[in-house]
Amino acid sequence: MTGRRVNRKEWPVNGDYLKLLQVFDRVHYENGLKSLREIASAAHVSHSTINQILTGRRLPADENQVTALIAALGGSAEDATKAELLYPRARRNLNPPERRDSVSGAKRAEAQVAAEEYGDTTKLDHLLRYSMDLMDSIASNYPKLSHAVPTGLSDLDALTGGFRAGQLTIVAGLSAVGKSTLGLNFVMAAAKSGHPSLYLGLESEKSQAVMSIIAAEARLRKIDMRAGTMSDDDWTRLARRMMEIVDEPAYIEDTIPTSMADFEQYIREARSSKNIELLVLDYAELVAVATQDRVEENLEPFMLQLKLLARDLKMSVVAIVSQWKTDGLSLTESYKRSPNLDDVGSPGTLRHADVVMILHRPDLHERDHSRAGEADIIVAKNRNGRPAIVTVANQLHYGRFADMAIIPMAP
Question: Please, which residues have CB within 8 angstroms of residue 97's CB and are 6 or more apart in sequence?
Fold first, then answer.
């Protein structure tokens, strides 16, 4: 659907801000007047934000948003450079509007600049408008979860809203329950939906992670892959599926820098060069040990650093943890009961997490259990909604979990 040209007589600004709007308007016009919804989708911002920017009632948030907007409008690299040069001058030289009925528009633009420069005292109206824009964007893009990375499990997405930028998710569970498999499933689900993802697996070599991905994607039994007993149909399915996923933006690593500062720089470079949106650490304890001078039983400082890194880089971080408290119970007794937050390491480990998922398999040490073939993802902490249990199909012979049902938790 073709959009319409902005009424330039209603622009409430002048000077360099006006010149910036003129660049946006020219690029928009010369490239076929795309609809605001098309532009919003391409620039990854809300429909109302695009409308406010193009009508001079809101300044772009930063130079990155300017560049994204020019690209969404269909502009060239030269157009982007021109707009980027005008943007800082437009911020410095916001002029009062010439039309009386546009006073509020200019004041909103000024308030936005002030809020960005003095973020610790952001005014309520700025926060309200930002929240409205976010809700508008989520609603206009539902169910695509444009502001979140999908988990690959539809019931889990419905409960949590997916992996959101700036958030830290912890995945916990007993040994051998399938946490690493779940983490790899998250990485591939993200990549297949167009969200670049990075799996840092220090628990095993990257070749093992890739074999698990191949099994999950081609529905190959891992035991046949290891034993060399794949059938002709298996090989055909493998070749076909590999052609389909070979270009997906998934990255697998099994080594990391040996200091926290270098680790953070490594992640920043991955975010910058590969646009990584989802980072999965397996296990968090191993990463913490590798990047610190001494081993700390309390993971809280490391989790805080992960949370701050997620917020700073506007990416989602999933930390798989192996810490588990048995409280004197045998492993068999621990496997039989349904776990909760109290079982997951020290309280400090969970303090900074936005979501805590506990993976539980009733048939882990009882193969004939009535719920054999099932697994529970217990969302025990959920800042995006209510706690609940998402029941999934356990297909670990294929290296994957699949959708089943969602069960509300008792209050």
Answer: 12, 13, 103, 105, 106
Q: What is the pTM of this model?
A: 0.64
pLDDT tens-digit profile of 199-221? 998 877 888 888 899 999 989 99
Same domain, yes or no: 112 and 175: no
Please answer whether residues 398 and 376 qualify as being in contact, where contact means their C-beta atoms are separated by less than 8 angstroms: no
Q: How far apart are CA 346 and CA 59, in angstroms?
A: 45
Cα–Cα dist 50/66, whole Å: 11
Residue carrying the six token digits 């003129």: 22
pLDDT digits (tens, 9 = 90+) for 147-189: 589 999 999 998 998 999 999 999 999 888 999 999 999 999 9
| Domain-ending residue, one of 114, 141, 168 | 141
Tell me, what CATH number does 304's domain have? 3.40.50.300
Q: Which residues pair with 383 in a beta bridge?
A: none
Burial 75-89 (b: 16+ CB within 10 A, else e): beeebbebbbbbbee
Residue with tokens 């297909």: 395
> How many other CB atoms sit within 10 Å of the CB of residue 149?
26
| Integer angstrom CA distances of residue 109 from 46, 79, 115 | 17, 23, 10
